[in-house]
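Run log, item B.
One chain of 332 residues. Sequence copied directly from the ordering sheet:
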Amino acid sequence: MALTIDQPIEHKQQSLAARLFASQTFWVVIAVILACVFLSFATDAFATSKNLYNITRNITFVAIIALGMTFVIITGGIDLSVGSVLCLSSMILAVTMHAGYSIEVGILASIATALAIGAFNGILIAYLGFPPFVVTLGMLSIARSLAMVASNNTVVFQFGPDHAKLLALGGGAWVFGIANPVLYMILLALITGFILRWTKFGRHIFAIGGNEHAATLTGVPVRQIKVAVYMISALSAGIAGIIQTGWLGAVTTNLGTGMELQVIAATVIGGANLAGGVGTAFGAIVGAALIEVIRNSLGLLGINAFWQGVFIGGAILLAVLFDRIRNFRRSD
């Protein structure tokens, strides 16, 4: 039977539409849009420039760490230590600058601390075979305890001669009035998306998550990549810690408490699969956006903030249910 030129085009369009509707990230985007439209009509405070500025800025801290968490979850791992790593990295930055060192030295010390923790986690998991859950759960406690030791469990709010520079770094809006944390998030998301989509390293990460044994047989350096992804996860927490310190203007040992749950929730809601092999940078951003919109809406609608966990937990369950339904359809 002869084919017209329109038939292959139509088939391609149908395939694109099918993939789009089967994408969990697509439906999360729709949920965010619908929630924003509803809140714009339900309350006068939501669509104000001040509230939207706060929402976009607040998204960034969870989103930046979720970008790093995406690497880990794609490999089939988990990192429960990111909230404590954020706290420790922030405290190292604050204590270093409080001692009179420059902002450059403080940032280097903070980043080095995060990378060292990530390498430690990765080595235990990749080379010694420790379960990721156990290793990172242990580091959750260790890193926060070290933050208490570094600060003597006090609040640090004086950052030495470069105090103003740090506050401008995290709390400024240098380009078109856009909050600096949002610009950092966009840049990191583009870098993450490029690595996952276009690099050999990214392909290896997906290969490990899809079938680690097969990846090993095909020559993928599984152990080295696992160490690298945990270092990336810790690095993202360290970067978020630096930015959040500049935004808050103070560091306490409670900083980042419970943040690991929000980060994992954002990653899973955005389409990452805890079994591995699936995840995108855009999904991590969208998942973080949905969580922040939920958090913001509770206050505006006069709902008790304690319900936040219920809504976020429900969103996670719906995301997992969506993934299960999608897998059943594929198997059929």
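Observations after the first pass:
- Confidence is low (pLDDT under 50) at residues 5-9.
- Residues 222-248 form the longest helix (27 residues).
Flagged for discussion on Thursday.
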